[in-house]
User: Which sequence fits this backbone?
């Protein structure tokens, strides 16, 4: 089966490099993607929005034969959900890495600081302590050295969803900075921020306690968690 790996903000396909050796052992075909505008620091990001990122992954799905699994980290989870909405009959499963599905009209994060029409990786003080667990000084330096500015509209564009068959696609949520019990409790309480997640018919949860970037802080464990969630090849 084909597995598309969608990175979160500021990251390209290479961000999955330390995770992939474990996944390669599953026998699935892996497709780590670099989303439009994230090709390099010097890439043209003007005019690129969330719909463009979703369309790029939809095009890859259309190029492949048979069922596809999507793995989305952070903001890449919103992209994955948009792809499911566009191609619900092609997606066998979605695996969210410290992420979850956005509801129609929601944006990923419209509070990130915009600089000259794009969103560079902010100062670490912008993030919460839970985001930065296990991200030591060396990992922070390596992350900042590789970080590519995110197109501003990707962070703030509202997602548009039209096909309720998206709720039929099974998902696994790998919870990192907050335990999955918080998600379950929030759903039970009717919290608006998990309203879309609450409508998905089949959801499994896996806890991988670390910060928001497990591909850097716990790459082997993340690979194992994703591998365990994949359908049998």
Assistant:
């Amino acid at each position: 089966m084909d597995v598309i790996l969608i990175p979160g903000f500021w990251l390209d396909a290479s961000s999955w490099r330390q995770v992939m050796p474990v996944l390669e052992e599953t026998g699935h075909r892996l497709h780590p993607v670099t989303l439009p505008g994230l090709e390099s620091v010097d890439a043209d990001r003007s005019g690129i929005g969330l719909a463009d990122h979703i369309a790029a992954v939809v095009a890859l799905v259309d190029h492949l034969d048979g069922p596809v699994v999507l793995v989305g980290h952070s903001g890449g989870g919103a992209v994955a959900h948009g792809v499911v909405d566009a191609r619900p009959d092609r997606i066998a499963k979605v695996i969210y890495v410290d992420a979850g599905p956005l509801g129609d009209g929601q944006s990923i994060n419209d509070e990130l600081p915009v600089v000259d029409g794009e969103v560079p990786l902010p100062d670490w003080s912008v993030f919460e302590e839970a985001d930065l667990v296990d991200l030591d000084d060396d990992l922070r330096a390596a992350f900042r050295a590789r970080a590519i500015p995110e197109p501003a509209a990707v962070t703030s564009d509202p997602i548009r969803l039209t096909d309720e068959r998206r709720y039929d696609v099974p998902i696994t949520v790998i919870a990192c900075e907050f335990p999955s019990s918080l998600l379950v409790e929030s759903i039970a309480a009717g919290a608006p921020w998990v309203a879309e997640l609450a409508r998905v018919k089949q959801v499994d949860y896996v806890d991988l306690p670390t910060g928001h970037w497990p591909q850097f802080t716990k790459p082997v464990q993340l690979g194992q968690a994703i591998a365990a969630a994949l359908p049998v090849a």
Notes: The chain has a mean pLDDT of 97. The CA atoms of residues 72 and 195 lie 19 Å apart. The beta strands are 2-6, 29-32, 68-73, 91-97, 118-119, 150-151, 171-175, 203-207. The chain has nine helices and eight strands.
